[in-house]
Design goal:
Layout lengths: L2 E3 L16 E5 L4 H9 L3 E2 L8 E3 L4 E4 L8 H8 L4 E4 L3 H10 L12 H12 L3 E8 L2 E11 L2 E9 L4 H15 L4 E5 L3 H4 L4 E3 L1 H12 L7
Parallel strand pairs: 1-2, 9-10
Antiparallel strand pairs: 2-4, 3-4, 5-10, 5-11, 6-7, 7-8, 8-9
Helix pairs in contact: 3-4
Length: 221
């Protein structure tokens, strides 16, 4: 039985999630609820035909920045002048592009207008950030996510040219590693990210890492 969220920002224990990782239903996307959710390893994911659904999968797909793998061909792209990397200069452009790009096997998008508004507010508050790939002053790829403590929670990426999203992701991982980020949450499995070194860990281990890397960082709201 799914937990129905109320007006407060509380969630049930993540161990109550069903086999697919679905934990709770309802609520809203206010900043305090979102911060509390991410602090616990919970994220919203739903479509136009459903209420807000909250997930905490087991196992969890993550990337330890020190485990990043970059192929020889991708290294050539990185050292060429084909693309330019920028950080957090066009958050709205990235999230809107992520909502519009067509994905194989998916009908429509889960990045709905209210989702865009919620994460733009998180960006204004300093939690949501974007990593961007530019070419000839045009945004051609990138990703966005949430940063809390020493954890980065990846949300979505897009690419209008081959390797554009990988270019932004690899640069971001290097930047986050230098800034002391210990874990990048990729949420659910993708072959694309597995090729870059992402792996599965248990929800228990993931929760322990969150406790260690976020628990001691006070949240400003």
């Amino acid at each position: 039985m799914l937990y129905q969220l109320g007006q407060d920002n509380n969630f049930p224990p993540v161990s109550k999630a069903n086999g697919e990782g679905l934990l709770a239903i309802g609520g809203d996307l206010n900043p305090k609820r979102l911060l509390h959710a991410y602090r616990l390893g919970i994220f919203p994911w739903y479509n136009r035909k459903s209420p807000i659904l909250w997930w905490c999968p087991n196992p969890r797909f993550v990337l330890f920045p020190t485990h990043l793998r970059v192929s020889h061909s991708m290294r050539q792209v990185l050292v060429s002048d084909k693309f330019q990397y920028r950080f957090n200069t066009s958050f709205s452009g990235v999230i809107k592009a992520c909502s519009e790009v067509k994905r194989k096997g998916q009908k429509g998008t889960w990045i709905l207008p209210e989702m865009i508004a919620a994460y733009e507010e998180m960006h204004r508050l300093g939690f949501a950030v974007s990593a961007e790939t530019w070419k000839d002053n045009s945004l051609v790829g990138g990703l966005y996510g949430m940063r809390m403590g020493r954890i980065f929670f990846g949300e979505s990426m897009f690419s209008l040219e081959s390797n554009a999203s990988k270019f932004a992701f690899i640069h971001l991982v290097g930047q986050l590693r230098e800034e002391g980020i210990s874990l990048i949450d990729c949420q659910t499995y993708s072959a694309h990210l597995e090729s870059l070194g992402a792996q599965m860990v248990s929800r228990k281990l993931f929760s322990e890492i969150l406790d260690r890397e976020i628990g001691s960082y006070p949240l400003p709201i």
